[in-house]
């Protein structure tokens, strides 16, 4: 997705926990963390912890 401090953030769109919500203010969601966000959840997780999401599971 993006790079900050030379770390690559995994794209939520490839994760099985990612979904699109009906909420226009918070259009992106994560089923594992049970939250909705204005930006992709992987960015929220990286911003809060400075590490990639530990629950990323690639869709098949």
Task: Describe the model.
The chain has 1 helix and 5 strands. With 60 residues, the protein is of the alpha+beta class. The chain has one domain. Strands 3-4-5 form a 3-stranded antiparallel sheet, with no helix packed on it. A two-stranded antiparallel ribbon has the order 1-2. The mean pLDDT is 87.
List keywords for this structure.
60 residues; three-stranded antiparallel sheet; 1 helix; alpha+beta; 15% helix; two-stranded antiparallel ribbon
N-to-C SSE string, H for helix and E for strand? EEEEEH
Mean pLDDT: 87
Give the helix proportion (percent range): 10-25%
Radius of gyration: 11 Å
Q: How many alpha or pi helices?
A: 1
Strand percentage:
15-25%
Shape: globular
Largest sheet entry: 3 strands, antiparallel
Structural class: alpha+beta
Distance between the termini: 19 Å
Count of individual domains: 1
Offer a quick outline of the entry.
By secondary structure, the protein is an alpha+beta fold. The chain is built from one helix and five strands; from the N terminus they run βββββα.
Secondary-structure topology with pairs:
Blueprint: E1 3-4, E2 7-8, E3 18-20, E4 28-30, E5 35-37, H1 41-49
Antiparallel strand pairs: 1-2, 3-4, 4-5
